[in-house]
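Hi R.,

Here's the chain you asked about this morning:
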Amino acid sequence: MSRPTPLSDRIANWLPRLVLAPSLLVVLVAVYLFICWTGWISLSSSMIVPKYDFVGLNQYVRLWSTPRWHTAVFNLFVFSALFLGLTTGLGLLMAILLDQKIRVEGTLRAIFLYPMALSFIVTGTAWKWILNPALGVQKVVNDLGWTSFVFDWIAQPTFAIYCVVIAAVWQSTGFAMAIFLAGLRGIDNSVIKAAQIEGAGLPRIYRTIVVPMLRPAFLSVIVLLSYIAIKSFDLILALTNTGPGSSTEMPSTFMYSATFRRDQMGVGAASAMMMLMTVAAIIVPYLYSELKEPRDGH
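And here is the predicted structure, written out as tokens:
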């Protein structure tokens, strides 16, 4: 006959669930419930206030027939490609340099990680001053005597999106470096020593052995940076305010503008769902690959 479980053991078993229950409830309500609500609004005829009728995909048709949305999607692809490529490349390079056990590693690591401590509002405001032709780089160089130097990208519709890339790369490269450095420190040194004994040089070791072993770190960096790129809002607002004109419009700023400035709540909800689908298209394959590995290894 089994003995009854002591009360203290039952409390110990239920305590983690009780502690996590409020957080789980908040996530269910504040995230998933509002995702469902936004999805329903995107299928309604909502304008200034929500309506709960059903008009099918009319709002999505309106969304994709809006030229400003096409500009936002194009800017997102340009920004994401440059942001991901430069941040990943520079982060990996800095991680490799710090992995050489240099004396000032702690100081350099703090310097590289410092921008991540700043909000995107602060970063955008600072870079707005730096890139301003009347205050920043152009004025400093002109005052030094190079009067023909021009760096007014932030005022040029064709180049303004690249100013956003510069600011975003500056802020996020240290974050990518930290992830890659953690991955490098987790690699067994015996593998590198064996390759050195075989006569392989350090560049070849990193290219053919170390970098391929950083696949999980690459996946994490790409997924997290993609999320940052897709939801970028405060950086755009502080740096360019989607200007000049709408040349730096992004899906996140389009969603805000459509919902709260142009009183097109249904179109704004449709754009939000398109952003959610984009994030899901990135996250789901990543989660699938991560969950599949233990099964394959088993």
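One quick note: The chain has a mean pLDDT of 88.

Cheers,
M.
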